[in-house]
Each structure stands twice: as structure tokens, then as C-alpha cells.
Amino acid sequence: MAAQAAATTFNGNLKKALAGLRRINLEGLRWRVFDAKGQVLGRLASQISTVIQGKDKPTYAPNRDDGDMCIVINAKDVCVTGRKLTDKVYYWHTGYVGHLKERSLKDQMAKDPTEVIRKAVLRMLPRNKLRDRSKIEDIC
């Protein structure tokens, strides 16, 4: 009965979520919890990217995905230094001519603070196949 209640409250795509869990080998993985309250964004992202790559383990190899799973709490309380809150801008293109969109860090923090941490960590990972299969979508 409780499983049915939990399944009815899930609002995402269940097939996609289960496929993502099946693709990750959970054996030997640890779950790391990071508290972002009062932490500087870049320093926190570099710690998370090190854990996701598995560089903190003695069995690290650059061609294997041996990293641990990371959970970030209090993402809305992350700090930035300098004038980045107003000066840092995220750009994306919609695919239509002339539709280059932009959003400042302050606006992005108001809309979705987890996306700020996710993009910071994703951009610190090496650009290879392991980045595409990394556990980046499970961060926040």
C-alpha cells in the first residue's frame, strides 16, 4: 500500500528514472552529502567533481567511472565572491534564428539554484565519454 502511495506522488517520468538507476552500478558506491550553506560555489563544485570522478579513491583510473554519488543540500544558500551575482550570465540558444537567451546568476538562483551547482560541476568535469555518463543529473 505504501509503495502505491509513493508511486502516485512521483511526478517525473518513471521509465526514465528507472533506466537511469539501472545504468548505474550501485555496488561499491558511497553516497556523499555536501552542505552548500555558506560555501563558495566554485570551491564546492571542485570538491564535488573530484568525488564524482573518483579521484579521492586509491583505485582511480582515468578511463573508469569509479566515482561516488553526491547529494547537495541547501543549494539556495550557496555564496559567490565579487560581483558574480550580477555579472555572471548563463547563455543558451533555442535553435531559432536570433534566439540567444541569457539569464544572470541572481535570476537563475531565484528560478532554480540546483541548476547553478549542476552546471558548475558539469563544466569542471573533463569533456569525454565519462562526462556524458557521469552521475551529474543525480547531484541535487
Radius of gyration (CA) equals: 17 Å
- How far apart are the first and last residues' alpha carbons, in Å? 28 Å
- The strand order across the widest sheet is 1-2
Anisotropy-based shape = globular
> What is the name of the CATH topology?
Ribosomal Protein L13p, Chain: A
Query: Overall mean pLDDT score?
Result: 84
User: What low-confidence regions span 5 or more consecutive residues with pLDDT below 50?
Assistant: none
CATH architecture: Alpha-Beta Complex
**Which class in CATH terms?**
Alpha Beta
Which oligomeric state applies?
single chain
Structural class: alpha+beta
The CATH homologous superfamily: Ribosomal protein L13
Topology pattern, helix = H, strand = E: HHEHEHEEHHH
> How large is the share of residues in beta strands?
5-15%
Count up the helices: 7
The portion of residues assigned to helices is 40-55%
Largest sheet: 2 strands, parallel
How many E strands? Answer: 4
Family: Belongs to the universal ribosomal protein uL13 family.
Protein name: Ribosomal protein L13
GO molecular function: mRNA binding; structural constituent of ribosome
InterPro entries: Ribosomal_uL13 (IPR005822), Ribosomal_uL13_bac-type (IPR005823), Ribosomal_uL13_sf (IPR036899)
